[in-house]
Amino acid sequence: MSPLDPNAAYRALQARDARFDGRLFVGVTSTGVYCRPVCRVRTPRQANCRFFRSAAQAEAAAFRPCLKCRPEIAPGLSMMDSSASLADDAAQWIAQTVQGGQPAEPAMLAALAARLGVTERHLRRIFQAAHGVSPQDYLTTQRLLLAKQLLTDTDLPVTRVALSSGFASLRRFNAAFAARYRMSPSRLRRDGAGSAGETPLRLAYRPPLDHAALRSFYAQRAVPGVEQVEDTPDGGWLLRRTLALPQGGQTLSGWVECRFTPERHEVTRHEVHVHAAPALAPALGSVLQQVRHAFDLDADPAQVDAALAPLAARGLAARPGLRLPGCFDGFELALRVIVGQQVTVRAAHTLLQRLVQRFGEPVATPFAGLQRLFPSAACMAQADPAEIGRLGIVRQRVRAIQALAAEVAAGRLRLQRGAPLTPTLQALLALPGVGPWSAQLIAMRALAWPDAFPASDIGLLNALGTRDVAEATRLAEAWRPWRAYAVIRLWLSLENLA
Fold first, then answer.
1. pLDDT at res. 462
2. Percent of the chain with pLDDT over 90
3. What are φ and ψ of residue 137, in 5° steps?
4. Distances, alpha carbon 57 to alpha carbons 73, 153, 286, 386, in Å
5. pLDDT at residue 4 in the model
6. What is the pLDDT of residues 414-438, one digit of tens each?
7. Which member of 21, 35, 66, 451 is catalytic?
């Protein structure tokens, strides 16, 4: 792991440069607190600053998180932040585990090592080299920061916060919290907790962000009953949708609202504000994880924009801050891709609306027109094929949908960010009716693979002015390892989106 340049880091701190948010943390020796580079408090003297690449490093050095800038809401690792891919895979897996609220288990890191195909000793060595802390320390930091966010932004009971953050007991949670932060969870709650449904959960992102592109992408694909995209009176925009999440052996159903404020607003700029239904409170970690994935909030625009610079030679103006739209549910995204095979976006939209109205379970929300869940994998696996076909979906795609649904429902296929790429692609391609185009699109949006490239996509070929898939693939070499972002940029060029 290369050392940080303290002079460059201090300049970023002085400028409150949001481009370094989540990639740089500063510990202040005079206070014992660590901050994000965007913290609005008075800039400390450089002699009192210690700089770190992660919150886990800062906490390992005995600094506690700032209560003002809140390191827990900072953007996380992008998918290509480091050349140490195994260590990054491990960090992604740990984050997924924590956000999913899975309890700590003695064998957790052993399972992670086995998943990556290495020994525990080798995992500890490469993780320490890449991230500056042990996997266990990284895991503990992620759990405590999630707990800190839930204590600050919700009125969940402390016991529920402990369990939602993955601690096996309230006693262990209280001990870990006090040891790291030198205060009790109840004291933090007294000092600044909000009320569920009133105080939004906050998530930061690195600027810039192409709001027009992201809003347009979701608005064009919003399925009535499940999703809504609207402009807000302050000049921002929001996405609402229904959501079902597994939690503790049951499925919780409700809604989530993600609100983007204009970046000119000094206090709330570079943040997404998230409200969720009270019924989803036990799974708020998973909700936040899905929001980060859906809007690619962990992206590093500086890396992506530099890689897409060659597109200018094709007459495409730069779009700073382009994001790779993800999804809120991997099965839902994969089903959408299959339904969209060889049809227009509008035709696929019509078919999905019929599918939701027929197979989506009703759900109560306070929003008119938002009243159904997207059909689950279990539901579609058990559905009568003839009934699906009567919606206008051809037999071949009905077979593909049900084969996909059976694998996901059985737990043999996991379509989520951080899932192992090669085995997942192989499993997808083994399904009937799923070819390279579909597999690449699923990898692009469900797995958040930034180098996915559906070379035969007709919109992509139109934007490149060719029908030669081999030629498109050759051109795309210049955009590695961010070809998926180039695909989004080329699709947008067909819309003439301002």
1. 94
2. 74
3. -65, -40
4. 16, 24, 24, 56
5. 83
6. 999 878 899 999 999 999 999 999 9
7. 35
Cα separation, 441 vs 424, whole angstroms? 13
Q: Which two structure tokens, joined as six digits, stand for 23?
A: 């990639």
What global pTM score does this model have? Answer: 0.92
Distance CA 90, CA 79 (A): 12
pLDDT of residue 264: 63
The more confidently predicted of residues 191 and 33 is: 33
Instruction: Quickly tell me which residue has 């759900």 as its tokens.
Output: 363
What's the gap between Cα 45 and its chain centre?
35
Phi, psi for residue 148 in degrees, rounded to 5: -60, -40
Tokens describing residue 304: 């992506």
Q: How many CB atoms lie within 10 A of CB 267?
A: 7
CA distance 139 to 180: 13
CB-count exposure of residue 249 (10 Å: 0-12, 13-18, 19+):
exposed
Rounded CA-CA distance 87/223 in Å is: 38
17 is catalytic: no
Q: pLDDT at residue 343 above 80? A: yes
CA distance 170 to 147: 12
146: three-class secondary structure by DSSP: helix
Q: What are φ and ψ of residue 124, in 5° steps?
A: -60, -40
pLDDT digits 0-9 by tens, 437-452: 999 999 999 999 999 9
Quick one: 313 exposed, middle or buried, by C-beta within 10 A (0-12, 13-18, 19+)? exposed
Mean pLDDT of the chain: 90
Phi-psi region of 384 (alpha: psi -120 to 50; beta: other; left: phi over 0): beta
**Which pairs count as long-range contacts for 217-220, CB under 8 Å and 24+ apart, including other chains?**
217/325, 217/488, 218/325, 220/345, 220/349
- Write down how long the chain is: 498
Cα 318 to Cα 210: distance, rounded to the nearest angstrom: 11
**Single-letter code of the amino acid located at 158:** V
Q: Are strands 64-65 and 33-35 parallel, antiparallel or unpaired?
A: parallel
C-alpha span between 245 and 257 (Å, rounded)? 15
Cα dihedral angle (372, 101, 415, 89), rounded to 10 degrees? 150
Q: What strands lie across the sheet with 33-35, from one edge to the other?
A: 49-52, 25-28, 33-35, 64-65
Residue with the two structure tokens 């699906």? 388
Alpha-carbon torsion, ordered 351, 354, 359, 365, to 10 deg: 120
Is-catalytic flag, 35? Answer: yes
183-209 in b/e form (b: 16+ CB < 10 A) is eebeebbeeebeebeebbbbbbbbbbb
Catalytic residue among 89, 298, 300, 457: 457
